[in-house]
Design goal:
Number of helices: 10
Shape: elongated
Oligomer: single chain
Strand content: under 5%
Structural class: mainly alpha
């Protein structure tokens, strides 16, 4: 017969479940108070985990924000950047990509909205994370342009495209995520990219 201690250990959630609890608690708190207004202790209390458990899952609060961004937004961007049929000048490809990518981001709309608000504060960790990711994405887009057309828009121009899409997604969220507003965000994103890369093609 198992002792009480053995039963407790057997029922204890695994690392994956604990990380899931912590992420969910963090999103609830951060979306209301912002990253500067929430401590690790606050997150632990909401998630009902000890600080030791938290630090087994994440090295600090910044690491948690990194993961929130990576899993809710950047994984989807990376999927696009690594696509075997990558073609920013192909409107059919852009339509499919923005349809799938924006839907995937909206599945975690609380995180996307939080990160949009946080990205406006240069002192926040989210600002640094997002702008580093946008910089990396823009440089990869530049490499594709140079390989395809022998020239490329500036990195700043490409980052501006990504920021515009981020705003369009945020606007769809704050409008209540009605299908009409989501479709408008997708269409505007597609139009922005198609215009940018069509102009580049026409210039060659």
């Amino acid at each position: 017969m198992e002792s009480a201690a053995q039963q407790s250990r057997r029922k204890r959630p695994g690392m994956a479940e604990q990380r899931k609890r912590i992420r969910a608690a963090a999103v609830d708190l951060l979306s209301v108070h912002g990253s500067n207004g929430v401590s690790v202790s606050d997150i632990c209390k909401r998630a009902r985990v000890s600080r030791d458990t938290y630090y087994r899952c994440f090295t600090d609060k910044d690491a948690l924000i990194d993961e929130l961004y990576q899993t809710s937004v950047n994984d989807h961007i990376e999927t696009v950047l690594n696509a075997w049929d990558l073609d920013y000048n192909n409107q059919e490809w852009l339509h499919r990509v923005f349809d799938q990518t924006i839907d995937a981001i909206l599945e975690q709309h609380k995180v996307a909205q939080l990160l949009f608000v946080e990205s406006a504060d240069p002192n926040s960790h989210a600002y640094r994370v997002i702008h580093k990711a946008f910089d990396k994405a823009a440089r990869r887009m530049q490499r594709w342009c140079k390989a395809s057309y022998g020239m490329s828009p500036s990195k700043e121009y490409l980052v501006a495209l990504l920021v515009a899409v981020q705003w369009l997604v945020h606007n769809a969220i704050t409008s209540g995520m009605k299908k009409r507003d989501i479709d408008k965000a997708k269409a505007a994103s597609e139009q922005l990219f198609h215009a940018a890369f069509s102009n580049l093609k026409n210039a060659t």
